[in-house]
Amino acid sequence: LSPGARMGCFTFIKVMMILFNLAIFLGGGALLGVGIWVRMDGESFVGIFGTLSSSVMQVVNVSYFLIVIGAILLVIGFLGCCGAQKESKCLLITFFSVVLIIFIGEVAVAVVALVYTSLAETLLTAVLTPLLREKYGEDKRFTEIWNVTMTEVQCCGLNNYTDFNNSIWLDKHETYPAPCFGRSLLLACLHLCGCLSQGCFNQILKEIRTNAGAVGGVAAGIAALEIASMGVAMYLYCQLDKK
């Protein structure tokens, strides 16, 4: 390419880098703002977004999650945008390093999730089954989380309904929790063991596998964006030496 063409290509990629990272920066700022809002005034958040947000907030501390993700996106967007705008080699290589670390972390999590699924099931069973027997029906928040999970996923216990055997709930009420009967209200009234046989862990895994294509597509898209961002950052970094 002629020097003019190379300069035009450099300018185009630089502008695209600025716009792309500006969008990331603004998105990160929005997530950070929502996270702070949820942290300071969670009741208003639930009031606007409804009962689903309440259920989600019971399972995950949404405010901290949004604050962390928003802060990371802010940093990445700032480094990429300012690095390209100011043509700063220091900012560009820092941007490259941060995205590379995140990319490696995502790959590591994916590998662990694929390889150690059975180990995760064993650990969860060892930890959660005793908690179900001791805290379900006694701890309000713990009970609400499990009720929402069992109702939405149509499951009972972690492995199956026998997780509630010898539990405080069964001793007190002499029947399994209502969500364990699904929509079989007659069975629930008769206190018969017509419980949902599938456990929540297997049901969640089944849902993940059913939607594995969509999840994999999203993950591949994110990975492609990260690789492209690193490639563009390194291209700009190397071209600055030639200017």
TrEMBL record:
InterPro entries given in the database record: Tetraspanin/Peripherin, Tetraspanin_animals, Tetraspanin_CS, Tetraspanin_EC2_sf
Topology of this chain in the membrane: Multi-pass membrane protein
Localisation: Lysosome membrane; Membrane
Keywords: Glycoprotein, Lysosome, Membrane, Transmembrane, Transmembrane helix
Transmembrane segments: 12-38, 58-79, 91-116, 214-238
Pfam families per the UniProt record, alphabetical: Tetraspanin
Domain of life: Eukaryota
Protein's gene: Tspan1
Subunit note: Interacts with SLC19A2. Interacts with NTRK1/TRKA.
Name of the protein: Tetraspanin
GO cellular component: lysosomal membrane; plasma membrane
CDD domains in alphabetical order: uroplakin_I_like_LEL
Role noted for this protein: Structural component of specialized membrane microdomains known as tetraspanin-enriched microdomains (TERMs), which act as platforms for receptor clustering and signaling. Participates thereby in diverse biological functions such as cell signal transduction, adhesion, migration and protein trafficking. Regulates neuronal differentiation in response to NGF by facilitating NGF-mediated activation of NTRK1/TRKA receptor tyrosine kinase and subsequent downstream signaling pathways. Plays a role in the inhibition of TNFalpha-induced apoptosis.
Family: Belongs to the tetraspanin (TM4SF) family.
